[in-house]
């Protein structure tokens, strides 16, 4: 098992397990390869996108972007926006915890003071994950729970 920066060759695997999350009702955002490429790998707001892999299989990834004016989540520009995606077969195996340690360090290096994770209000597993990482709820627009992490 190892972690590394995501690369274009990861896009098909990342998209495939996002589609699996969508099919299980755990994802509402797009999951196609073009979305993965433009929003996670090639985003101009990207700070880091880390994959967790074993034997060439991507088991999860975590994206960290710098919030921009007019972002779709309503996050304050200059904060970090975190997105975590774990292959269902790899859930509860420490993948998310490992990824967040890297993301937290990337946020410090980038000078981000606060991170936001905007989670569907009905995604209990994601809500529990972010709480376990130390995020706290700071706002709840309709259908979402927005959690904040203060980077130390």
Main sheet: strand order: 1-2-3-4-5-7-6
User: How helix-rich are the residues, as a percent range?
Assistant: 25-40%
Instruction: Report how far apart the termini are.
Output: 28 Å
- Runs with pLDDT <50, length 5+? none
Major sheet summary line: 7 strands, mixed
Q: Count of helical segments?
A: 4
- SSE pattern: EHHEEEHEHEE
Q: Over all CA atoms, what is the radius of gyration?
A: 14 Å
Percentage beta strand: 25-35%
User: What is the β-strand count?
Assistant: 7
What does the overall shape look like?
globular
Q: Give the integer mean of the pLDDT values.
A: 93
The chain-level structural class is alpha+beta
General description of the model:
This protein is an alpha+beta fold. The protein is built from four helices and seven strands. The chain has helices at about 10-25, 35-40, 95-110, 125-130, and strands at about 1-5, 45-55, 55-65, 80-85, 115-120, 135-140, 145-150. Strands 1-2-3-4-5-7-6 form a seven-stranded mixed beta sheet, sandwiched between helices. α1 packs across α2 (about 35-40). It is globular, with a radius of gyration of 14 Å. The protein starts with a strand and ends with a strand. The mean pLDDT is about 95.
């Amino acid at each position: 098992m190892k972690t590394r920066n995501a690369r274009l060759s990861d896009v098909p695997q990342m998209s495939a397990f996002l589609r699996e999350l969508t099919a299980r009702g755990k994802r509402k955002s797009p999951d196609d390869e073009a979305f993965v490429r433009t929003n996670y790998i090639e985003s101009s707001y990207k700070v880091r996108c880390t994959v967790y892999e074993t034997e060439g299989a991507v088991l999860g990834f975590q994206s960290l972007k710098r919030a921009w004016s007019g972002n779709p989540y309503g996050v304050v520009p200059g904060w970090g926006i975190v997105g975590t995606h774990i292959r269902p077969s790899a859930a509860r195996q420490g993948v998310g915890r490992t990824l967040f340690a890297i993301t937290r360090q990337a946020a410090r290096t980038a000078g981000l003071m606060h991170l936001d994770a905007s989670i569907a209000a009905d995604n209990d597993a994601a809500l529990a994950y972010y709480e376990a990482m130390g995020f706290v709820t700071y706002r709840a627009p309709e259908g979402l729970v927005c959690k904040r992490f203060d980077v130390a």
